[in-house]
Amino acid sequence: MTKLTRDTEINLAGVMGYPITHSRSPLMHNTLMQENQVRGVYIPIEIKPDTLGPALESLPKLGFKGVNLTMPLKQEAIATVDELDPVGKLMGAVSCVVVKQDNSLFGVNNDWVGFRDNLNANFPDWQSTTTSALILGAGGGGLAIVYALIQEGVEEIVITNRFQERAEKIADIFKDQNISVRPWAERHSLVAETDLVVNTTNQGMAGQAPLDLSLELAQPEAIVADIIYVPLDTPLIRDAKSKGLRTVGGLGMLLHQSRPAWRLWFGIDPEITDSLCSIMEKDIRGST
User: Fold this and answer.
1) Does 113-249 match 11-109+255-287 at the fold level?
2) What is the pTM of this model?
3) If 0-12 CB within 10 Å is exposed, 13-18 middle and 19+ buried, where does residue 100 land?
4) What pLDDT does 219 receive?
5) What residues are annotated to the active site?
6) φ, ψ for residue 126, nearest 5 deg
7) What digits encode the pLDDT tens for the residues 184-198?
8) Are 143 and 160 in contact (CB under 8 A)?
9) Cα separations (Å) of 59 from 17, 98, 216, 246?
């Protein structure tokens, strides 16, 4: 059965960013629409920085249910949305905008949900074996991952970043938590002290140099995660696999971010099917 409010309704959604041609979100969401019999379309919308406000304000008039936002627009959206969820306020960034029934704009940040649910899908028992985590990188992705791990009860979190002051800013946000900042030069030895290693930098992404991190001292049961999904297996993930470590790639984080957005836009909690994963993996492999 096609899920529509009215027989003539077209469910419109999209992703705004600059540039936007690289985004896999349209393929993912349009596949989800087909799988869930939702009549609609999800489109990429290129919006240059400092022009986001009018674009967001036009969404109700154009009949949109909402949009996702990519960098560098996540911070800019805060000035335009009418309401911001607590996580968006904490992180200072919006990843999803919802057009409410009264045409007001509700901004949320669900990046952390994607990371958490991806971990849960790959290793349902990861919380029971993870008391410590090492986060490499201190940008928006690093902040989201730190928040997710705090919510899941990870007892000790260490952040390391080339520019230490950025890591210290994240630690300051969570002053009441057991978060420490360590110099980037110590990253190799820090691996020995953690149950979960997460790369949130762009190192290892297609076109970028690999992340300079030795896993020689990693604990045998450690989990190594990367939020990058192009390529599907980054050099870090390949190295971890070669050492027999448990690994989590970045594609699942993108896929699982779709679910909270769909619940808000369409009132549907979509399943992340094997078919969807295969379609996304095939597209990524074809481009690398």
Assistant:
1) yes
2) 0.92
3) middle
4) 96
5) 74
6) -60, -30
7) 999 999 999 999 999
8) no
9) 15, 9, 50, 42
